[in-house]
Amino acid sequence: MIYQTDVVAAAPTSEHTDRSLKDRAPVRAPDVQRAFFISHNDTTKDMLRSETAGARRTPYSLLGYLLPKLLSVGPGCHLPSGQAGPLYPASSPRPVDIYQAHYLDCERMNIHRPKFHRSQHTNLFVLHQPLCKKNTFTLIFIVTLMLAIVTLRASAAAGPMLVARPGSLAFGNVAVAGNSARTMTVVNSGNTVITISQVSVSGRGFSLSKPATPLKLSAGQSIRLQAHFAPEATLEVTGSITITSNAWDRSLTIALSGRGVQGRLSATPPSASFGNVAMGGGNSKILTLSNYGLGSATISQVSVSGRGFSLSKPATPLKLSAGQSISLQVHFAPQSTGEVTGTVAITSNAWDRSLIVALSGRGVGVLGRLSATPPSASFGNVAMGEHNSQTIRLNNTGNDSVTISRANVSGSGFKIAGLIVPTVIPSGRSATFNAVFAPTSSGSRTGSVSLISDAPNSPLTISLSGTGVATARLLGANPLSLNFGTVNVDSTSSLSVTLTNHGNADVTISKVSVSGAGFSHGGAAAGTILGPDQSTTLRVAFAPASAGSVHGDVVVTSNATTSPMTISLSGDAVKPSPHSVALTWSASKSSGVIGYHVYRGSTSGGPYTKLTPAAISETRYTDTSVEAGRTYYYVVTSVDSDGLESSHSNQASATVPGS
Predict the structure, then answer these.
(1) Residue 402, strand partner residues
(2) Is the pLDDT of residue 86 over 60?
(3) Apex CA 404: angle with CA 399 and CA 410, to 5°?
(4) Between the CA of residue 215 and those of 84, 156, 197, 223, 436, what are the distances in Å?
(5) Distance (Å, whole) CA 303 – CA 476
(6) For residues 499 and 556, is the Cβ–Cβ distance under 8 A?
(7) Fewer beta carbons below 10 Å: N end or C end of the chain?
(8) Which residues have C-beta within 8 Å of that of residue 589, sequence separation ≥ 6?
(9) Interatomic CA distance for residues 253 and 163, integer angstroms
(10) Domains and CATH numbers, the chain
(11) Sign of CA dihedral 63, 68, 72, 77
């Protein structure tokens, strides 16, 4: 196919083109109207592939063979007149002299633009129609513009070429004085050996682990290079790695980029004022130290200055990543009255090497000082719908009055009662209020009472805790039975029962009744209310009117789930005897002894029956329930505060006269 072009240029690349143009006689520059390239057709593709593979060919008869066929015209070779006749005899293909050009009228020929690809060859010639002698073809020799082999190398596969993977290295943010490394691979993607003569790096902070040069890379071989970025300042930096070799691209450049960053520290609050602090007291503030920079910061030292100031120092060195923060507690305990100043100094490798936080406070004479007894209140388990309260005493231990201006209560189910604010507590005096817990749901709860005052230690915080549980009312008795033993007719013996609320809600006793001859009760009565874990005493008396064994019951009715509760009673009534046995013994030397029990048996060695329903504190006892003519055997035990008895004492005996 024939393509039009306005400029014809090519470089000689074969032995045909090695001949110097100086051998040609000078000619007049032609008046060129058209210039054409003859491109390759399918017939020449094999030739081109052969040339690409490295075979050396001399362009010879392509134009001489194709030109007569493509440009065949009638006799006279005048294309515009439509006459027939070839420019060259078609039967005589011959090589075309690369220094000649042919001119003819090609106005009516198709016009296209040429396309060249690397590693391809093409033949070049010029066709021209001179402006003289109408209807005549004139073949004029002109200065050869060049008939050449244009060789362009298209890819690294056709010739030696270096490729970097990746083509550029971006280090991103790197801390100042830090170091970041990236690895890249340089590959010989051609089919011949490449010699790397030099590897260099540019850009502030960039460095490279350079290979020894010269370095030869065979086809397909690769090497790994490691680049480093150690920024010296906080700024964007660019650079490059340049690899010089004998490859098609003599100089291969890999772009480098990175950014030096540093941590930046700030303190919140930027300064701390402790106000008035009484001598002997103290006050604390929390400082939050944050790194708001783009890089990490390493704290090497934290120090505090100023009389009376102290600091909970963290372990150093301490590294804070970007966005990270820590808390520091600064304490002021004045050692003298008057204004005091100080600083907290944080030394690091951050942008601001030393961060200073100003401190100030004032030591004053002892003012009013508020304390709470107890300092916290735990309500334990409280049934839902019920409440529990504890009394809190507020004490002013200072030498001036304290004014409580506000009381804040937090926590679900907690409240206070009995404290009216504002209230003034004089020096050395106290005031009380109740903290109340009334849960509305089950589960553990915590809260607090915060008292705001003009005392130096304001606010005073009292912690509260409690657990809401399902309602349970459980009333228990100890003991569940009473045995009065032997009691003389017309005399009285008394025993006690302890009633305890083991539930988590109030128990109300609505009725107490007793049955059995000679039994009666006192103490706990209808209307008695027992809170959780509270107890009351029920007293039962036995005053028999006639001799004989007597049994009875005490029935306690309440709103507890165990209601009604029955306590069984028993006793033996005897007629009084004119005889009696008087017993005495030495006091126990054991610690914690609160009383004694006396036992009697009718045979030596027992068994014995207890004569004392309750422990007696004296070391003597008179047994009036004896019968004439009988022998009795006695032992004594000691009892401690937990109700534990000792073993039996030695046995003593007594014989009652027969009359």
Answers:
(1) 425
(2) no
(3) 135
(4) 65, 19, 7, 10, 88
(5) 64
(6) yes
(7) C
(8) none
(9) 10
(10) 1-154 (no CATH), 162-261 (2.60.40.10), 265-364 (2.60.40.10), 370-469 (2.60.40.10), 475-574 (2.60.40.10), 581-655 (2.60.40.10)
(11) positive
Encode pLDDT of 249-290 as tens digits: 789 999 999 988 878 889 899 999 988 887 777 889 999 999
pTM: 0.32
Q: What does the alpha-carbon distance between residue 274 and residue 330 come to, in Å, rounded to a whole number?
A: 10
The answer to whether the CB of 208 falls within 8 A of the CB of 123 is no
Residue 254 forms beta bridges with which residues?
A: 241
**How is residue 121 annotated by DSSP?**
-
**Token pair in block for residue 141:** 């020799």
The span from the CA of 63 to the CA of 42, in Å, is 15
Measure the CA–CA gap between 536 and 530, rounded to whole angstroms.
Answer: 8
Token code pair at residue 54: 């490295």
Query: Which tokens go with 368?
Result: 């009013």
506 is written with which tokens?
Answer: 């109030």
Tokens of 558: 């309440």
Alpha helical stretches, state H, 253-408? none
Which band of pLDDT confidence, cut at 50, 70 and 90, is reported for residue 27? very low
The single-letter code of the amino acid at 338 is: G
Alpha-carbon distance 226 to 207, whole Å?
9
